[in-house]
């Protein structure tokens, strides 16, 4: 039995590429478990309480519930359009969830794990999280998102998180539940530094779950994270309760702490078993920054899927980044993956098999001589398939796809090497047919294993070669090494090559790229600045803080997301270009007065410098 969950998404924001990635990855895993024959439940849904949602609703002149209904439906519609195979679409405003949370709260209270006191601390509404003064950036800003926090002093109920410190460490040690493995140490350090009891109720707003009636304390609302995390259990009532504990909670790295520290403690307090894995993926970033509505750098997943096809989009997301790392969204790379892998290696192989079997064996593909002539090639492909499965079990989707394409490559290379048309010419019909069968069996097995990522295209392969993709054939072909006979029939080309690269590429970006007039350009002021100082920003692996000298010795502070591309020391003394009349902004708690210009070349950002030394502050135009 396997139960996999995505985080439940806040309804203050429309779904974007980051959300789509989490959901598509979880969908791939759920499909993989079903293929392996596990009884599977896959949960996704929305997180609808809290101050952040209350505020967003107000901004839209909606009641909180109306607003939550609207955005929750948007998420659901997108997942339906994307053919996401969720079994449970959970919402924290569902009455059965509310009842469940109140019950559990009471249980934890009665056990002595919850007590009442007074809270004073810094709260970030955006992250719905408390911080101590020493954790803040510049004594004010949230260390996670950089936004300003507010000082809160209110009566609050507390959860005895400190009591669970050692038990949590023991869980990391004994069960090794964190994926990728390298995230474990960060968590151990955090927990070893000491866990403070956690404030788990609020009184300064209304939109949330009230305390259980038994406590007769009506003004308190249950902390949104305690409310939200229990959705994973509250959604599994009655006959579904057997699915707990979860096999994997899939989360973004920003919310790993909630899932790997608070959540196991809450579960222990509630006497419930702990999940097997908590797996944290990286972020999709644009120009060095996490994609988010507030930064205005979001990519609409629907547009990409419409432009390039849903399956190519799924493939790209899972191939482009290594699990746990950040990924920069780049359309050119998407096109390259479609052309080089999906079209050349995968689609073409099917075309070649159909063509050759029609020509040489009346569409019949007989497996009887494969191991006589091509045992080595077959074993080699098999080795890649085995590796692929091992990688997918731990969500290393890029390596899993790499291995599957290595197996396809064995087939494609064998065709070039043995040239079946020449074998036929030389009357080696048996060998030629065995070669076609080798390729068809590899393609069939790869298609079964690729099915969780490309459900529709692999079904087309199965139809064209007349076999089935199911947990039965997974068992037979993948695990028991059976070879099949096939009867091929014509099929439309899979993943036709994308020729008009630039035109396609522009379709998505065009929206913001209307032509401008010279008057518009004249509003822009770009100047040359001398880098007087340049430092990495503590706590960020992307940002650098520049001090630039412009005309009349004016010194400006500018924050730029190029830390991954330059060593700050190397930039001191260089002249660079800065957009100097940009409105000031706060980035990661630092004021930024301008924007440093760089050219994007593939994955790299390259600073633009004048061709010869000029006066500081010189205007560009
Ligand atoms: N509501 C909480 C989760 C509660 S789970 C009990 C939440 N919601 S969220 O909508 O802000 O984020 C949901 C998920 O989307 C997180 O895992 C987050 O990491 C992910 N992403 C949001 N932006 C992202 C990117 N730019 N890239 C990849 N994923 C990111 O947190």
UniProtKB/TrEMBL annotation:
CDD domains: MetRS_core, tRNA_bind_EcMetRS_like. Its cofactor is Zn(2+). Keywords: Aminoacyl-tRNA synthetase, ATP-binding, Cytoplasm, Ligase, Metal-binding, Nucleotide-binding, Protein biosynthesis, RNA-binding, tRNA-binding, Zinc. It catalyses: tRNA(Met) + L-methionine + ATP = L-methionyl-tRNA(Met) + AMP + diphosphate. One of its GO terms (biological process) is methionyl-tRNA aminoacylation. The keyword Zinc applies. Coiled coil: none annotated. The keyword Endoplasmic reticulum does not apply. Gene3D superfamilies: 2.170.220.10, HUPs, Isoleucyl-tRNA Synthetase, Domain 1, Nucleic acid-binding proteins. GO terms for cellular component: cytoplasm. InterPro entries: Anticodon_Met (IPR041872), Met-tRNA-synth_bsu_C (IPR004495), Met-tRNA_synth_2 (IPR023457), Methionyl/Leucyl_tRNA_Synth (IPR015413), MetRS_core (IPR033911), NA-bd_OB-fold (IPR012340), Rossmann-like_a/b/a_fold (IPR014729), tRNA-bd_dom (IPR002547). Binds 1 zinc ion per subunit. GO terms for molecular function: ATP binding; metal ion binding; methionine-tRNA ligase activity; tRNA binding. A motif ('HIGH' region) lies at residues 9-19. Zn(2+) binds at residues 124, 127, 142, 145. Residues 520-621 form the TRNA-binding domain. Belongs to the class-I aminoacyl-tRNA synthetase family. MetG type 2A subfamily. Is required not only for elongation of protein synthesis but also for the initiation of all mRNA translation through initiator tRNA(fMet) aminoacylation. Homodimer. This is Methionine--tRNA ligase. It comes from Campylobacter novaezeelandiae. The gene is metG.
């Amino acid at each position: 039995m396997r139960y996999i969950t995505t985080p439940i998404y806040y309804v203050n924001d429309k779904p974007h590429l980051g959300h789509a990635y989490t959901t598509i990855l979880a969908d791939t895993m759920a499909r993989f478990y079903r293929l392996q024959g596990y009884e599977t439940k896959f949960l996704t849904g929305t997180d609808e309480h809290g101050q952040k949602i209350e505020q967003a609703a107000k901004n839209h002149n909606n009641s909180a519930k109306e607003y939550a209904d609207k955005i929750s439906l948007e998420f659901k519609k997108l997942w339906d359009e994307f053919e996401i195979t969720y079994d449970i679409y959970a919402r924290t405003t569902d009455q059965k969830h509310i009842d469940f949370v109140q019950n559990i709260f009471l249980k934890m209270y009665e056990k002595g794990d919850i007590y009442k006191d007074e809270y004073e601390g810094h709260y970030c509404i955006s992250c719905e999280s408390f911080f101590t003064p020493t954790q803040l950036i510049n004594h004010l800003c949230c260390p996670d998102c950089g936004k300003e926090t507010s000082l809160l002093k209110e009566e609050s109920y507390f959860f005895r998180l400190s009591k669970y410190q050692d038990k949590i460490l023991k869980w990391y040690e004994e069960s090794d539940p964190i994926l990728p493995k390298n995230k474990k140490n960060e968590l151990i350090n955090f927990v070893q530094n000491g866990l403070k009891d956690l404030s788990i109720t609020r009184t300064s707003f209304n939109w949330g779950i009230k305390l259980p009636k038994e406590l007769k304390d009506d003004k308190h609302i249950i902390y949104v994270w305690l409310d939200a995390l229990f959705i994973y259990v509250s959604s599994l009532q009655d006959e579904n309760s057997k699915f707990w504990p979860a096999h994997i909670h899939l989360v973004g790295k920003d919310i790993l702490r909630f899932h790997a520290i608070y959540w196991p403690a809450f579960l222990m307090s509630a006497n419930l078993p702990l999940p097997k894995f908590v797996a944290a993926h990286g972020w999709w970033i644009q120009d060095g920054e996490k994609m988010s509505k507030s930064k205005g750098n979001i990519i609409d997943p629907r547009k990409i899927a419409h432009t390039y096809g849903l399956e190519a989009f799924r493939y790209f997301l899972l191939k482009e980044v290594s699990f746990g790392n950040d990924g920069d969204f780049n359309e050119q790379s998407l096109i390259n993956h479609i052309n080089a892998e999906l079209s050349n290696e995968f689609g073409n192989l099917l075309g070649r098999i159909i063509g050759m079997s029609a020509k040489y064996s009346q569409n019949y593909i007989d497996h009887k001589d494969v191991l006589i002539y091509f045992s080595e090639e077959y074993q080699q492909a098999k080795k890649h398939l085995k590796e692929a499965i091992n990688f997918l079990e731990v969500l290393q989707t890029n390596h899993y796809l790499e291995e599957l394409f290595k197996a396809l490559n064995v087939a494609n290379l064998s065709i070039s090497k043995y040239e079946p048309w020449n074998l036929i010419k030389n009357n080696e019909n048996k060998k030629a047919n065995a070669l076609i069968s080798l390729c068809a069996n590899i393609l069939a097995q790869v298609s079964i294993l690729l099915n969780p990522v490309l459900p529709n295209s692999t079904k087309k392969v199965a139809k064209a070669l007349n076999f089935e993709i199911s947990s039965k054939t997974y068992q037979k072909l993948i695990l028991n090494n059976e070879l099949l006979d096939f009867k091929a029939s014509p099929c439309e080309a899979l993943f036709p090559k994308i020729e008009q690269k630039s035109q396609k590429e522009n379709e998505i970006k065009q929206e913001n790229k209307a032509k401008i007039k010279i008057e518009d350009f004249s509003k822009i002021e770009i100047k040359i600045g001398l880098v007087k100082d340049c430092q990495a920003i503590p706590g960020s692996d992307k940002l650098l803080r520049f001090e630039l000298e412009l005309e009349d010795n004016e010194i400006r502070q500018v924050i730029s997301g190029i830390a991954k591309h330059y060593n700050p020391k190397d930039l001191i003394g260089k002249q660079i270009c800065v957009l100097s009349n940009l409105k000031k902004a706060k980035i990661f708690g630092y004021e930024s007065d301008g924007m440093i210009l760089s050219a994007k070349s593939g994955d790299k950002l390259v600073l633009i410098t004048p061709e010869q030394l000029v006066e500081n502050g010189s205007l560009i135009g």
